[in-house]
């Protein structure tokens, strides 16, 4: 799980802010991975975060949460229930997932069931996929693409339904049994309409990629997307957007600070050794 709880105490009153991320808080991987994170003071999420850390402190895995989906307890069952909800809608159902891998047998069976019910299933799976799309009579309604580019795709997004009934999450878990059943992972609901729009635009950017994206076919092979449109690379577009809005790419403050600290530490160490010898 990738979650951070910030507590501010003012006039003996506590207020909380939570950061939930799809990737690790690591300055090295942050230079290579693409991830999403949300910073929120939503009471439902902050209360769950407090409960989560209290439970982790005593090694309790089966805590009760109202907003966050937490593996190994509530994440997989809720995902399965939300898929069932879309299956009940038939052709009006919709499932979207951007993940690194899909290997969990129960989820695969559920997605096949969704396809047979007429649900439109769109997936961006960077790595291993143990489900084949476009198999007649089984996965006709499932479309899977992989995007491999300059940066390592690492963000996870789940979307179930459309419009007012839509449920959207960013998560640290792939559709893998080890993530869903044997690790502590978190999926955070996205409730703010503006943030939802941003994530939809983000997902649509990857779905429009015709340069680095490859479509997975029913024979298990990946093929380059044939398109009459101009070449479009999702990662380049997102980078241009980020640079355009900020004018420049921010340099990591960690390396210079770390280097300066190490230099100072070495000088002090040499000084102490010298003083010790003189004594």
Q: Please provide the ordered H/E string of secondary-structure elements.
A: EEEEHEHEHEEEEEHEHEEHH
CATH architecture of the domain at 70-247: 2-Layer Sandwich
Class inferred from helices and paired strands: alpha+beta
Order of strands in the sheet with most strands: 5-12-11-10-6-7-8-13-14
Instruction: State the CATH topology of the domain at 70-247.
Output: Endonuclease, Chain A
CATH C-level class of the domain at 70-247 is: Alpha Beta
End-to-end Cα distance, whole Å, is 52 Å
The H-level CATH homologous superfamily of the domain at 70-247, spelled out, is Endonuclease Chain A
What percent of the residues sit in helical stretches (DSSP H or I)? 25-40%
Q: How much beta, percentage-wise?
A: 15-25%
| Cα radius of gyration in angstroms | 22 Å
Summed over residues and divided by their number, the pLDDT gives a mean of: 91
Shape: globular
Outline the biggest β-sheet: 9 strands, mixed
Total beta strand runs = 14
């Amino acid at each position: 799980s990738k979650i951070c709880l910030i507590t501010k105490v003012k006039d003996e009153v506590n207020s909380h802010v939570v950061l939930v991320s799809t990737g690790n808080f690591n300055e090295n991987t942050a230079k290579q991975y693409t991830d999403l994170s949300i910073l929120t003071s939503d009471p439902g999420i902050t209360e769950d975060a407090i409960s989560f850390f209290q439970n982790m402190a005593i090694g309790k895995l089966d805590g009760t949460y109202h907003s966050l989906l937490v593996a190994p307890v509530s994440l997989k069952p809720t995902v399965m229930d939300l898929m069932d909800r879309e299956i009940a809608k038939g052709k009006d159902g919709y499932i979207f997932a951007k993940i690194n891998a899909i290997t969990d047998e129960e989820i695969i069976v559920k997605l096949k069931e969704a396809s047979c019910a007429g649900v439109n299933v769109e997936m961006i799976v960077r790595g291993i996929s143990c489900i084949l799309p476009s198999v007649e009579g089984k996965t006709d309604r499932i479309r899977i693409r992989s995007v491999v580019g300059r940066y390592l795709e690492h963000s996870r997004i789940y979307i179930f339904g459309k419009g007012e009934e839509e449920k959207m999450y960013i998560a640290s878990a792939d559709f893998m049994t080890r993530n869903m059943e044997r690790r502590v992972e978190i999926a955070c609901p996205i409730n703010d309409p503006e943030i939802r729009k941003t994530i939809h635009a983000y997902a649509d950017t990857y779905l429009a990629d015709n340069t680095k994206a490859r479509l997975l076919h029913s024979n298990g092979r990946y093929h380059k997307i044939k398109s009459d449109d101009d070449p479009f690379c999702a990662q380049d577009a997102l980078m241009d957007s980020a640079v355009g809005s900020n004018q420049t790419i921010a340099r990591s403050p960690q390396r210079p600070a770390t280097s300066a600290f190490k230099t100072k530490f070495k000088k002090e160490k040499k000084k102490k050794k010298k003083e010790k010898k003189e004594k």
